[in-house]
Design goal:
Length: 285
């Protein structure tokens, strides 16, 4: 299993209950990652999900579970934060399940793609505070990149709490809500771009005559190694690192010239803009 980065020295212990509505992959990554790194005690975590195997993963580490959101929310103290970790189209159903006023005064942390903070607050009757977060899948191995933005009623204390929680599974940046779809285009969809690159490098290696299994291993290891080199060189830009391995008229130069002729950089920019625009469309229903 991939190693998680060491806990941050400023990772303050969370002493507040968190209820997750939904116990899928991202809820597990965030909350069990926080438990694993000592940011929150498992007894402060409650996961609501109708699927027994999903609940079992939380139960195995000592977290509490419930079959329904209504039971989970009712069983937790009034200051418990609620992590909304279901599919966006399930929001209305969750809101209908809860008794009137169940979310009043609570902090709701929404990771629903394409759903505004106002939309979440409205669904729950208008009495909750909302912080919207967009994490990405590397949170599953403690290497996530999450954007946090203040929604209706959110306080600085709310934002700091959410940043501590999500900081347990990677980096956190604070953005205005109008930039959340742009963030999705870069970081939310970004891991797929890297995997796409690995696919393309593997295909290229096979085209040179390398066996498929070796080609996949070589491409994967090259991308992982380059990422670690990038991480280990905080004072050098990606451009500078690329230049350091690109000798004039050498092999890498020939490769990057080919990429530039084919407009690969511009294609990536267009892809990010397309992802951003699709996020906006989804947010409008």
């Amino acid at each position: 299993m991939p190693e998680h980065p060491p806990a941050r020295p400023d990772g303050a212990q969370i002493d507040r209950s968190v209820v997750s509505i939904g116990a899928g992959n991202m809820a597990r990554a965030i909350l069990l990652g926080a438990v694993e790194r000592g940011v929150i005690e498992p007894g402060l975590v409650t996961a609501a999900d109708p699927n027994p195997p999903q609940r079992a993963v939380f139960e195995a580490v000592g977290a509490r579970t419930a079959e329904t959101a209504a039971v989970a929310v009712a069983s937790c103290p009034p200051d418990a934060a609620v992590l909304l970790a279901v599919k966006p189209q399930m929001l209305a159903g969750v809101a209908e399940e809860l008794p009137a006023g169940a979310m009043d005064g609570r902090l709701v942390i929404s990771i629903l793609a394409g759903t505004t903070g106002e939309g979440v607050q409205r669904a729950f009757g208008g009495g909750c505070r909302v912080v919207r977060v967009m994490p990405n899948t590397p949170a599953r191995v403690g290497r996530g990149m999450s954007a946090v933005c203040a929604g209706p009623g959110a306080t600085e204390e709310d934002l700091a709490f959410v940043e501590r929680l999500f900081g347990a599974v990677g980096e956190v940046v604070r953005l205005e809500e109008e930039l959340m779809d742009a963030f999705t285009g870069v970081a939310g969809s970004g891991p797929a771009y890297v995997f796409y690159l690995v696919e393309a490098m593997t295909a290229g290696a096979i085209a040179t005559g390398i066996e498929p299994a070796d080609a996949a291993r070589i491409a994967r290891a090259t991308v992982i190694g380059a990422a670690r080199l990038l991480e280990a060189s905080p004072d050098e830009s990606a451009e500078a690192l690329r230049a350091s391995v690109t000798s004039k008229n050498g092999t890498t130069f020939a490769a990057t010239e080919s990429l530039d002729r084919d407009g690969v950089r511009d294609a990536f920019v267009r892809a990010i803009l397309a992802a951003r625009d699709r996020g906006r469309e989804l947010g409008q229903g």
